[in-house]
Amino acid sequence: MTDVIWITIPTYNEADNIGLLVSEIRKAVPDAVIAIVDDNSPDGTGDIVEGLVRKDQQIVLIKRRGKEGYATAIVRGLQEGLKRGALILGQMDADFSHDPKSIPALLQALKEGGDIAIGSRYVQGGRVEGWSPWRLFLSRSANLAVQVLLQVPLADATSGFRFYQRSALEHLPLDRLQVEGYGFLYLSAALAVWKGLKVRQVPILFRDRRQGKSKLSRRILWEAAVALLKIWIWRHTGRWLGKPLIQTSPQP
Ligand SMILES: Nc1nc2c(ncn2[C@@H]2O[C@H](COP(=O)(O)OP(=O)(O)O)[C@@H](O)[C@H]2O)c(=O)[nH]1
Ligand SMILES: [Mg+2]
Fold first, then answer.
1. From ligand 2's centre to the CA of 41, what distance in Å?
2. Is the CB of 220 under 6 A from ligand 1?
3. Residue 208 φ/ψ, nearest 5 degrees
4. If DSSP codes are grouped into helix, strand and coil, which group holds residue 212?
5. What is the rounded radius of gyration, in angstroms, for the C-alpha atoms of the chain?
6. What is the pLDDT of residues 34-86, one digit of tens each?
7. In ligand 1, which atom is closest to the CA atom of 38?
8. Ligand 1 contact, 16 CB (< 6 A)
9. What are the helix (H) ranges across the chain?
10. CA distance 111 to 240
11. Rama region for 145: left / alpha / beta (φ>0; ψ in -120 to 50; rest)
12. Closest listed ligand to the CA of 64
């Protein structure tokens, strides 16, 4: 394994997407290691990936026992990449919302000096296709709230299509974040900005998923909103309201 570029893909019931997605990523970045973190999907996603692993040594399957959540799946995949010595580590969804054809542009942004490249829907040249006006409004308002309350000058901090330099990831305590889904995404982006890392925003076309169902629920949306308030209070008072969302020491 060359292990230079490592792409983490969390999956839960993505049997209709994963095979084609992997082959499209292969075309876009022939040398990348593609690491799929599957939570024992009832639809057999893991079995499909096992078949792919047999044909392609640059595919890795990380199996977890059950549905443990998006954020911890991302962390697990990225940590495995760090352990195996990857120099550039990325994350993207399995449902074709994140187009593999955009990966080279994200990698280029790192080459040009970025510590992190975020595929962004809400910068010039970026776009969302297939969302209802309501869903778009929610996503845009969430990002506006993050910009104003956390003072993070990023158009799309809730995007899950990203690449990190190894050194940047080593500076970010992602394994200590105690928040799921969108909250995990904007908090990790905010930490990068607060630490002075260079975050590049690369325009992407985001398409709503074609196959399967969204797993990020209303509960996770609500959790992300409450988390925003808690983080705001913490930044202004130094105290957490309730359980700290950033643990002081790594989890055992
Ligand atoms: N391993 C794992 N992957 C998950 C979990 N929840 C969501 N995912 C994956 O994370 C990605 C984003 O989830 P998705 O349902 O598309 O969320 P949405 O795009 O916000 O509606 C997809 O690749 C999902 O299969 C989970 O609990 N475990
Ligand atoms: Mg999706």
1. 16
2. no
3. -60, 150
4. coil
5. 17
6. 999 999 999 999 999 999 999 999 999 999 999 999 999 999 999 999 999 99
7. 1
8. no
9. 18-28, 45-55, 70-83, 103-111, 133-150, 166-171, 181-194, 218-237
10. 37
11. alpha
12. 1
Read off the tokens for 159.
Answer: 């995007």
User: Which atom belonging to ligand 1 lies closest to the Cα atom of 69?
Assistant: 27
Q: What is the DSSP code (8-state) at residue 178? A: -
- The SS3 of residue 97 is coil
CA 239 / ligand 1 centre spacing (Å): 31
Sheet holding 199-203, edge to edge: 59-63, 33-38, 5-11, 88-91, 162-165, 116-120, 199-203
Q: Residue 176: its pLDDT value, please?
A: 97
Q: Are 174 and 246 a contacting pair, CB within 8 Å?
A: no
**Domains of the chain listed by start with CATH number:** 5-237 (3.90.550.10)
